[in-house]
Amino acid sequence: MKLLPFSVFALATAAGLAGCASRQAAAPSPRPAVEPPVATATTPQKKLSNTPPAKTGIKLPSEVRTRNAMFKLTSYDELPGWQQDDMRASWSAFRNSCEVLQKRDDWRDICAASKTVPPNTRAMRSFFESHFTLLRILHTDSRGDGEVTGYFEPLLEGQAQRDAEFNTPVMGVPRDLYTIDWSRVPKAQRRSVVHVKPEGNLLLLAQPGDAASYPLDLRRFVLDDRDRRLRLRLVGNAGSPTARVDPYYTRAELDALGLPQGINAPVVTWVNDPLALYAMQVQGSGRVRMPDGQILRLQYAEQNGHPFKPLRVTPKAKVVVATRGIGGGNANDAADEFEIEGDAPADTEADAPVLTRGVTVAPRAPAAKPAGNDPLVDELLKGARKPAPGSAKPNPSKPQPKATVAARLSSDPSYVFFKTVPERPHTEGPQGALGVPLTPGRSVAVDPRVTPLGYPVFLSAPAPAGSNISMQRLVFAQDTGGAIRGAVRADYFWGFGNEAGQMARATRHRGQMWVLLPTAEASRLATSKLVTRGVSLGGETENSCLVPDGEFCSEAD
User: Fold this and answer.
1) Do residues 72 and 136 touch, judged by C-beta distance below 8 A?
2) What is the mean pLDDT of the chain?
3) Whole-model pTM?
């Protein structure tokens, strides 16, 4: 589950392309010659792309609102690039979504019908047009553009045992980390002290005076409807005067305790670069190569419950090194290296030619740095970029010591814990929040309060700097991210390895988004509380979700 996005990296989050398996930029497959119309049981002969859903006989509202976004009924003819997108490249991602969504009534027949669609772009496009209603996603103030960023799956070096070099632990979920779903607390008690007791690693409501209970002061917490779980730790003995429930440790507190000794948590593996571990925490997943060549695939397991306030970390572009004068190596064979943006000048050694055995090999041109600044990150880095009065200025051309890096990273209170996942084909991306493998170039991370997870989304954004990859394409909302918040917001998954990282770094644009709803589901909006009928809904009557699903977005009592 990607809860920490890459948008805040200059790799940029949100994100789902450089291929995950091929480690090359995943450009869209060449568009085939125009195919003749195909008539099947699931592909009607009547061309629907010129017919807005509102004119098909189904009464649909032209506009609906939630607390977080506005949605406008739209024709497929209005989609920039809809006719040019090669739908075959998106089909496997669609089938992955169906693995989860086919359990729902409105999706069962759609997913079953998709199995008989011929493998050509025209039939696939007609399938989407005939089964889905198109809604443009807008901000609540009707603005239509938002931030589109990118993320990827990095490669780290690791080993099972700690030594002088590999001394940074990748932590599993602490055994003393407890969670509670605050939405299950009666509304009248959400700003008061309640009593809870542990059941496994869950905290459940208890009666005051219960000898096994702890007092939990909910007034200490911001109750976020995006993530309704509080991450907590128990202090003192149950029922004692000193018993209480505190927020779980921040990153700085975890560092001060001394990982891994300071907490009761397993070590998944040891890596040699704390900055690379931080990068993997922001991405939410990664691969770790062990000394014997085995690859551990790691993904998000849990988070410490503190807000994500990231430093801007970027991957260094790799160079192809020629050896013995005959050809070059594969730059992706090397683990990814990262730097905190602003610490290194433009002409560092990483940007210089590499001289080996008398053969000079020019480095690959790094992707252009994205334009614009991230106000949150800039604010966080103000103090970091300016040395304290009287202190020596660091030499930006040399890597900073691990202790210095750790001190810098402590300004971000969030901390991600990982778990290993079974080996899967190297061409598959990591598992996203939806529970299915991400597809490079066709998976995105979204805010599920706005865009239902698993649903098709049409994205229109400029191509990354220096590439000709079209980002006017059908993608699927299969992941989330800690900084992926808001109406028009997507984090595009580029795949695995350094080249994917460079593409992610160059992805930071303003874009537009449309969501495709099953038509039966969309028709019910006509009688829902989301229909504005020209009147803005306000206050208590507004719903949070376009499509409540009970897990990623639900209406709190």
Assistant:
1) yes
2) 79
3) 0.76
